[in-house]
Amino acid sequence: MIQRLHVQNFALIDDVTVTFGRGLNVITGETGAGKSIILGALSMILGERARIEAVRTGSDMTIVEGIFTCGSESPPLGLCRAAGIETDGECFTLRREMGVDGRSKAFVNGRPITLSLLKKMGDLLVDLHGQHQHQSLLNVDSHVDFLDTFGALHSLRNHIAELYDSYQDTLRQVKEFKAQEALLRQQEELYRFQLKEIREVNPLEGEEEDLERERNLLENSEKLCHSADEIFDRLHQAEDSIVDRLHLLRNTFETMSRIDTRLTDHMKSFDDALQELQELSDFLLTYRQKTEYDPDRLEEVRDRLGAFSRLKRKYGGSLEQVVQHRRFLEQSLAQVDGYGDRLAAHESELARKKEELGRRCVTLSQKRKLAAQRLKKLVESELKDLGMRAIRFEIGISWLEDEHGIVELDRDRYSADHRGMDHVEFFIAPNVGEELKPLAKIASGGEISRIMLAIKSTLAKLEGVPTMVFDEIDIGIGGKIAEAVGKKLKKLAGTHQIICITHLPQIASLSEEHYVVAKRVHKGRTVSAISQLGEREKVGEIARLLGGKDVTPIVRKHAEELVARAGRR
């Protein structure tokens, strides 16, 4: 339960602290006084979405803090321990801060936590039933949620949602696979022609550079031969050749070294030069013999380089790109050739997931039908307590036939989604002799309020949420019906902490704790404040609810009787 709520700089609230008690806590106040602002602040520390507009004008930050108590083995404390957060016995503090920049922070016992963890804890601590949720019964899509909560079927439903997502992923893969296959089939003839063309040439990486060099040699072979002959002739064959001159110079130098022995060591330079020239001459002789003009080979090289150029123009700017395109063609055609086996594997996996999903949907549907029978009886019983003794309440579960549906039963197919195969809708017949009709279409505001309270009362026996908050559950009711609703809330307060915003004196008179919200001007600014009422003040507030601003002695007497009667109960 929530023990204390502290709010700073939230909408019209400057600084407010509220201490709640066990049982039925009632909040009243004139329209626009700020009652729902209190619940807005409470929802903020329960992890609901926070809006920048909630930060009080002129303030940098809004702060909401709540102190909660629950059993030592309760799920919220389990979440704290899992997050490594120490708690003081069965008591802990949730805190939420939001600045004017929209940035929000959350804390448990001063330790920062994620907003997702705060939301998980909030869902386990408080069932917050605001005015917009009050109308959720008018949304048929929400009916299955009520049924699944009652039947404790969310685990199976979540499993179905996972199976459904997995099935949809595989279905999408099969469709993409078939689309790729169709595209490749369209391109297959072109791809095979291109691959044949490239394979006929069969270019190799680095081959183009080698052929360019060979072509250059072949085109200049006559010039190379002539130059080699000329060098060889001048070195060896010609009169007064370089080698002959070098021999004469060596002989002269040798004569000099006999006279001056210091030159002897330099004779090696002449010998080395003669040796290198001899080796060069030998190389040129061999080079000349190997270098011949070969017009056939030149034509062959030119033709191959021309084939390379044609491939490059068609399949890329370089031979490397041509080779890469060949690999792409080979891989694509290999995929085409193997599509049959791969498609069969994908479709087999899709069929397996479809069959399992169908079985789970049928199981969930069977469990829902059993839960619907129990929920129908309990809700009708609760509604009788709320003054709707003649009402009939039914939960319709139907299937939508679809020739391409996921679920197959008796050779018929039915559609399904992440919530299963059932379309769930609540029906009512408010009076004797009337036919059942969709609740969302015929229920009045007062009937919706009581049906919602009946469902909440039924679910409260199953859910472990210790605190329930009702924001104007009494819309559209009054008189004896209002008294019946008050009794039902009082009964719920025997097992849960109830916080209820109301305009009805019949409900307010039953409270263990009564709070009033009022709006006033302080230092030139409007502020909302909440105060806890004593017994005498409570009678005065109930009298205001009964008679408005003009509270006569008769009205006050009536208020005293209401409070006294509630005390006797």
Description:
The structure is a single chain. This protein has helices at about 35-45, 75-80, 115-125, 130-135, 145-150, 155-200, 205-220, 220-235, 240-260, 265-290, 295-315, 320-385, 440, 445-460, 480-490, 505-510, 535-545, 555-569; strands spanning about 1-10, 15-20, 25-30, 60-70, 90-100, 105-110, 110-115, 125-130, 390-400, 405-410, 410-415, 425-430, 435-440, 465-470, 495-500, 515-520, 525-530. With about 575 residues, it is an alpha+beta fold. The chain has three domains: about 1-130 and about 465-530, P-loop containing nucleotide triphosphate hydrolases (Rossmann fold, 3-Layer(aba) Sandwich); about 140-370, no CATH class; about 535-569, no CATH class. The strands form four sheets. It has a six-stranded antiparallel sheet, covered by helices on one side. Helix 8 (about 220-235) packs antiparallel against helix 10. It is elongated, with a radius of gyration of 47 Å. The model has no long low-confidence stretch (mean pLDDT about 85).
